[in-house]
Amino acid sequence: MEPAERSNTVTAVLMNGGHDPEALRTFxxxxxxxxxxxxxxxxxxxxxxxxxxxxxxxxxxxxxxxVIEVGLQALGVPHGKGGAQAxxxxxxxxxxx
Length: 97
What we know:
single chain, about 100 residues, alpha+beta, 3-stranded antiparallel β-sheet, 3 helices, globular
């Protein structure tokens, strides 16, 4: 990956409805081996963070999104399903063979 194509930020996933982001972080780490960051600042206790700074490629992010969806499902957290599939569909259109 070219340095100009590397991200210099993270993505926050806001947990609405009083659901505990720590439960999601713990599930993702202990059950799937994926470490998510804690929400910081005004998002502390309300969100998790996905790090994608430096050399991180699309399949790595797809795996992380899928694990988050699995965790939300396993924990009974209502969520819009299909985020990982939407990312796959978008990449399939953008990345040419």
